[in-house]
Amino acid sequence: MDGKGTVATWKDKHRRMYDQATRHPFIMSIRDGAVDYSAFKRWLGQDYIFVRQFIPFTASVIIKSCKHSDEESDMQVLLSGISSLNDEISWFKTQAQNWDVHLHSLVPLQANLNYCRYLERLMEQEVDYSVAITAFWAIEAVYQESFAQCLESSARTPMELIETCQRWGNAGFGDYCVSLQRIADRCLENASSDVLSKAEEAFICVLQHEVNFWNMSSG
Ligand code: HMH
Above 50 in pLDDT, residue 197? Predict the structure, then answer.
């Protein structure tokens, strides 16, 4: 071992795609203050739909963790994730009201449907815990890295978007992502070559869905 975990190795190997997902023009437009507010509102509504589907996915990862990991601390990390999703749903409802986005009449757009369908596939029983936790980490890490950039001292993020950026860009969420990465690394260390290649594929797939999701939001 070179001391680097599998996840970090894949981040390097797929750096171009990783950067496309975390430095998308939509995020950069928030960071430099040039954001198109109709795009922001579109993102807000669509992400609410996504997060609702992300909850059962999180639950499915918890179930896999119970069945396939004897590491009790995984449960603690995953439970903190699901409890913050409870908060997140309320947050979306408040934000939607503030931004005049009508959640009840929202129609999921194609990229969102595709992403949600992918989550459904990952929820299947046959999908290995190592694969699911890798995808789970990637989904959270992309948002964490994306929004954290909007909070850097050189960022010119509009004041009314700071709260959104803090939701995923805050230090606590960063620690949570590091915990997820550690779980993924530990699982992958003992994985078969078949599971390893499926997990790497899941990582790439998440990145592509994230890029498509940002593209959809920007219009
Ligand atoms: C599309 N990816 C998308 N939405 C989110 N809320 C997250 C990741 C992080 O939970």
Answer: yes
How many domains does the chain fold into?
Answer: 1
Structural domain including 50 reads 6-218
**62 found inside a domain:** yes
- What is the CB-side half-sphere exposure of residue 207 using CA atoms within 13 A? 21
Residue with tokens 């009840």: 104
Helix intervals (H) in the chain: 6-13, 15-22, 25-31, 37-68, 72-98, 110-122, 129-149, 159-169, 171-189, 193-218
**What is the pLDDT at residue 1?**
47
**What is the predicted pLDDT for the residue at 219?**
86
Res. 2: pLDDT tops 80:
no
What CA–CA distance (Å, rounded) separates 165 from 106?
23
Average pLDDT for residues 69-83, to the nearest whole number? 89
Q: In a mutational test of the pocket of ligand 1, which residue from 46, 142, 211, 218 has the highest number of ligand atoms less than 8 Å from its CB?
A: 142
Active-site positions read 210
